[in-house]
Amino acid sequence: ALAFDRAGVDVLELGVPFSDPLADGLVNQLAAQRGLESGTTPPRLFETVAAIRRESQIPIVFYVYYNLMHRCGVEQFINDAARAGVDGLLVLDLPPEEADTYEQLMRNAGLCAIWLVAPTTPDERIAAIVKRGTGFIYYISREGVTGMQAKVAGNLADRVALIRKHTSLPIAIGFGISNPEQARQVAFAADGAVVGSAVVNQIAELGKSPDLVPRLEAFVKSLGDGVKGR
User: Fold this and answer.
1) 86, 38 in Cβ contact below 8 A?
2) 153-208 confidence digits (pLDDT tens)
3) Distant-in-sequence, close-in-space partners of 14: CB < 8 Å, separation ≥ 6
4) Angle at 12 between CA 215 and CA 175, to 5 degrees
């Protein structure tokens, strides 16, 4: 986390390991499995965030499945996250139409409720989704699950323009962005690029290597340079 902060990351997204991560591709599925096997639980993640907060104020968002929150107790999870220093939640499997109680709990705790918009989301539904969002809107760049791709979708600018008609919130694009050139392409259309699987893949490949932190920091900085057009 501190390396990401030094590298200029604007928001740190932490995935909460879950046994049935339906929105994730193989890289993130394996990462979730490793996390569960090593004993990573929500309370341990809250402890990690609290430790980060003693050194850094980088904004932190949890990428989490609602099933897991439900099992922990939704109100308890939200309040514990807020106390630890989490800034927002991106919930993968909760339809906005069923989120009234969740959103009220989030407002009470002072957390941002970040919503997803998909490539197939019709215009009228985009309007309904984004008016509920706080923090930023996460646009999924392609259909399917998370994972690295050879190229980004060609219609990003048009889709982002459609979303911008309904919100003044920043728009970040994720799913499939894995290198500085792709990050640069995304930055022309949106306010941010979300890179997950490519970072997770580097962590998996480097393991406990002493080079892990410096190499990860260099990689993330290269992505930031791509976004900023350097």
Assistant:
1) no
2) 578 999 999 999 999 999 999 988 889 898 998 988 999 999 978 888 888 888 78
3) 45, 48, 49, 60, 61, 62, 63
4) 85
Contact yes or no for 174/139 (Cβ under 8 A) = yes
The whole domain housing 201 covers 2-225
User: Mean pLDDT throughout 52-72?
Assistant: 95
* Domain membership flag for residue 230: no
**Cα(217)–Cα(42) distance, integer angstroms:** 25
| Catalytic residue list | 13, 24
User: Closest by alpha carbon to 103, among 130, 135, 111?
Assistant: 111
Overall number of domains in the chain: 1
Q: Is residue 65 part of a domain?
A: yes
The CATH number that applies at residue 121 is 3.20.20.70
Ordered strands of the 88-91 beta sheet: 12-15, 60-64, 88-91, 112-117, 137-140, 171-174, 192-193
pTM, 2 dp: 0.87
Question: 80-136 pLDDT, tens per residue?
Answer: 999 999 999 999 999 999 999 999 999 999 999 999 999 999 999 999 999 999 999
Task: Provide the token pair at 65.
Answer: 């499945």
For 26-43, give one letter per residue: b (16+ CB within 10 A) or e.
Answer: ebbbebbeebeeeebebe
